[in-house]
């Protein structure tokens, strides 16, 4: 393979255009193996018929293909339907949830990134102040001084983000690497973060799909009420001890070798 792609003796030279195109196609190729198809179907069924479900958790081990799953789901939801002549309203937003710079997840950065991905780079700010209380508000702000919040959050930015989700009528927001929502050892944090996700989902009517490692498991069974509003899907590895798994793996590997 290496000799075919790089017939030159100097491996530091760039590949010929035709060889580079072949390599790029191989890297982009994805095998539709049973595990991927199963979880894809489960999530899409929930997106189209969520009932009372407002969030979905998809968890699995590292390297199993969770980011590829997020990409596949987003492409499927945003692919134009033939009957619409190539014009299809956007139905899904994919956000790569980056780890926080500090101890806690920065919600305002999340809202900013979501708005940027949706193409919303500016918004109008309207301020309406009651003249009878304006001075009291100023004095209260001065007396309070510098304040700290548990989660860095800008309510105005969140309102704009939620309004944009409603305006576009999205069906799903997919959060890849969603385990970064939980960053500290504080036992209260998973519930706080899930309440935030749940609130956004209810306010906007948009299903939120959290895709990540097993660190997301605390989201699944925090309490009875939240468990009723969420679904959990496991994206598992293939196991050598299972003959069906072995056959599925051989089929997938054979498809890869044919590329």
Using brief descriptors, characterize the structure shown.
45% helix, 2 domains, Rossmann fold, 5-stranded parallel β-sheet, 259 residues
List the helices and strands and how they pair.
Elements lengths: L1 H4 L11 H12 L5 H15 L6 E5 L6 H13 L13 E5 L10 H11 L16 H11 L10 H14 L3 E5 L12 H16 L2 E6 L11 H5 L1 E5 L8 H15 L2
Parallel strand pairs: 1-4, 1-5, 2-3, 3-4
Q: Could you estimate the helical fraction of the residues in percent? A: 40-55%
Mean pLDDT rating: 79
Per DSSP, the total helix count is 10
Number of domains: 2
Instruction: Return the string of H and E elements.
Output: HHHEHEHHHEHEHEH
CATH class of the largest domain: Alpha Beta
| Uncertain spans | 136-149
- Measured between the Cα atoms of the first and last residue, the distance is 12 Å
At the fourth level of CATH, the homologous superfamily of the largest domain is P-loop containing nucleotide triphosphate hydrolases
SSE-based structural type: alpha/beta
**Main beta sheet, described?**
5 strands, parallel
What is the CATH topology of the largest domain?
Answer: Rossmann fold
Describe it.
By secondary structure, the protein is an alpha/beta fold. It has two domains: 1-30, no CATH class; 51-237, Rossmann fold. 45% of the residues lie in helices and 10% in strands. It is built from ten helices and five strands. It has helices spanning 2-5, 17-28, 34-48, 66-78, 107-117, 134-144, 155-168, 189-204, 224-228, 243-257, and strands at 55-59, 92-96, 172-176, 207-212, 230-234. The chain has a five-stranded parallel sheet with strand order 2-3-4-1-5, with helices on both faces. β3, α8 and β4 form a beta-alpha-beta unit. α3 (34-48) packs across α4 (66-78). It is globular. Mean pLDDT is 79; it is low at 136-149.
């Amino acid at each position: 393979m290496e000799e075919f792609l790089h017939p030159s003796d100097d491996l530091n030279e760039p590949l010929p255009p035709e060889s580079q195109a072949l390599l790029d196609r191989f890297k982009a190729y994805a095998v539709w193996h049973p595990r991927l198809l199963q979880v894809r179907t489960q999530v899409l069924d929930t997106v189209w018929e969520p009932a009372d479900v407002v969030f979905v958790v998809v968890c699995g081990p590292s390297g199993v293909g969770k980011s590829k799953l997020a990409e596949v789901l987003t492409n499927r939801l945003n692919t134009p339907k033939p009957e619409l002549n190539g014009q299809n309203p956007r139905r899904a937003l994919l956000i790569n949830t980056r780890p926080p710079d500090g101890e806690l997840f920065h919600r305002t950065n999340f809202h900013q990134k979501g708005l940027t991905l949706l193409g919303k780079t500016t918004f109008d700010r309207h301020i309406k102040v009651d003249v009878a209380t304006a001075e009291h508000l100023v004095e209260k702000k001065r007396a309070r001084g510098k304040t700290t919040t548990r989660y860095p959050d800008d309510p105005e930015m969140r309102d704009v983000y939620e309004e944009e989700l409603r305006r576009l009528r999205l069906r799903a927001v997919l959060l890849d690497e969603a385990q970064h929502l939980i960053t500290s050892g504080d036992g209260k944090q998973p519930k706080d973060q899930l309440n935030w996700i749940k609130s956004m989902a209810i306010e906007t009517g948009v299903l939120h799909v959290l895709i990540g490692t097993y660190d997301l498991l605390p989201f699944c069974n925090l309490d009875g009420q939240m468990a009723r509003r969420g679904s959990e899907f496991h994206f598992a590895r293939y196991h050598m001890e299972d003959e069906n798994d072995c056959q599925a793996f051989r089929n997938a590997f054979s498809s890869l070798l044919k590329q």
